[in-house]
């Protein structure tokens, strides 16, 4: 079929043509927006799940919902070892710029921008250039203690939004990569805002161990956030993600083709798009048949091996790769395995493998599913490793 008309979009964070299977999360967020707008208390939201399940796509869709409601919005992507004071300042600046034209008191807006500038300049990086003409404020959000400063800054931002009858939503991707001190500060700020019923919410997204990370930071985080586990799509939703875009291009899938595609993708949204694109490019005509899928599966696997899996595997050291191969060999279903089983498989003492395991966790390649177990953050990663030749 014509590759120019291929509707599938297997890009990182790229919205698919049909956002299937996420209506529950979108509807729940609409309720959050409505409640906050009416001054009702509401918890911030945290999305968790493996890589490739569409957390970033959903995060962007939720942001679009807030924009539709005329909320101010900003987005931050956390990075390991990097304080988010600077990136948060930029995101909040953008959010306030979206609501400032509706504010009747320009001086009040300038007062907040002065506070924001003072907060940002405490980052100590010298990299933030917001283009704010007002002088930095003194005595507000400028102590250098992130927890104190963040509570004051977000409280002032929420008050500014309340003046114009709207709210502010901050979207934080890769939340598990925040330094521990930043997580402490963010939890404290969200706690204060929830007590004030302030019109500001934080929507975070991260890997499955993020709830445990937040709980270790502040004991009340279990009640502070509403957690939503984002998982693979059920069969009907995965079929919808394939069928609707194809139908718009005048193409169809046979039931057998859809069945094989679900077996190949396991319903993971990124794989649905990747395999859908490969099938479209290799199928000679509509309808797409089971035989077309069988031909396309190796093509999709080769592309994923280079971009989705291979790029991650290359980031690991030889010792870390050995650890991951042991994980893959222990369970062909890629379920969590015990760290003691990995040590036994490698005929090593568990303590000697701790550096490799900890490094893999920091690189976001594995996570501690629960105490004493370890699992891949990337679906099908074990399958990929089992297909690779063993190192000499």
TrEMBL record:
* PANTHER family tied to this protein: ATPASE DOMAIN-CONTAINING PROTEIN, DNA-BINDING PROTEIN-RELATED
Q: Which Pfam families match?
A: AAA_16
Its recorded name reads: AAA ATPase-like protein
Using the record's annotation, list all stretches that form the Cytochrome c domain. Answer: 162-328
- From the UniProt entry, list the residue stretches annotated as the region Disordered: 1-21
Q: Which GO terms describe its molecular function?
A: electron transfer activity; heme binding; metal ion binding
Q: Which InterPro entries match?
A: AAA_16, Cyt_c-like_dom, P-loop_NTPase, WH-like_DNA-bd_sf
| UniProt KW keywords | Heme, Iron, Metal-binding
